[in-house]
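Below is one such record:
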Amino acid sequence: MTAKMYYDADADLSALDGQTVAVIGYGSQGHAHALNLHESGVNVIVGLAAGSKSWPLAEAAGLTVKTVAEAVKAADVVMVAVPDTIQKAVYDNDIEPNLKPGALLMFAHGFNIRFGRIKPAAGTDVGMVAPKGPGHLLRSVYEQGGGVPALFAVEQDGTGTARARTLAYARGIGSTRAGVLETTFKEETETDLFGEQALLCGGVSALVKAAFETLVEAGYQPELAYFETMHELKLIVDLMYRGGLNYMRFSVSDTAEFGDYVSGPRVTEGSKAAMRDVLTDIQTGAFAERWIAVQEAGGDEFRELRARDRGHQIEQVGADLRSKMQFLNPVVVEAGAAQASTSKAAGEARK
């Protein structure tokens, strides 16, 4: 059965008429949601902690900014766009005590609802719009007249208006221009975590490092290994993005295509079984429990893992090579902050 996609014609923005939307947070997703909604004609306010560095940025963009508690009190729709790790504290302290009756509580990712960290009252509308792309892309594509696809879900509908308002929100941020797919908090959370861990972040990172190490250990120049295993990856992914695996294979040489068929399965032999194990950890909540425990213990394990990979040889070689290719708008990440070599990249990194 083919999944149904919803587009602009299926989402009535007037479902938000006369309502105020509070976007809590002004980071990667929050800034894009707030600005896109504002430019779509929705009445938007941004909720931030007092003294937040993002406060003047949001005001400079023409948005009204209030503390989180004040923003929630004034809102009919509340989008929680702060990191998963702090959502529970923000919700318990500032959102739940100030939610209006009949308000729609929204999320851009279902983690805290799926794993029971946040448990809204039975009468509260609960929805989700989860764009399938980072915030700076959601914003830039909107400005160009397009949209980033998204998933949407309704977990609770006490007012009978939650679905219409959730779809209207998706239209307001531009996602119905590209299409939105209906799902559940459970399905979105589990597939999102799996995609990140097994492929998009974890799987790709591990394959890139392993391929680089294999070449270097065999005596090849690290710079050459970098170009073959990381630099060219974007070129291949861009082809897949535009036309799938078939277009990628159409675009590369016959030699590369043949190697794809005969060697790819050898490299990934056993990976599907490992992927099933990863998925099981996500479905059972084992991964969520470990991640929450790491945060509650102060985050030392997370910082140690980050520091270990930051020092990998491919990162050192790559940083040097990228610094000589200014057309890439290279970015250097140091001490948790991204520092860009051009003003354009700096703007993207700050978001």
Summary: Residues 341-351 have pLDDT under 50 and may be disordered.
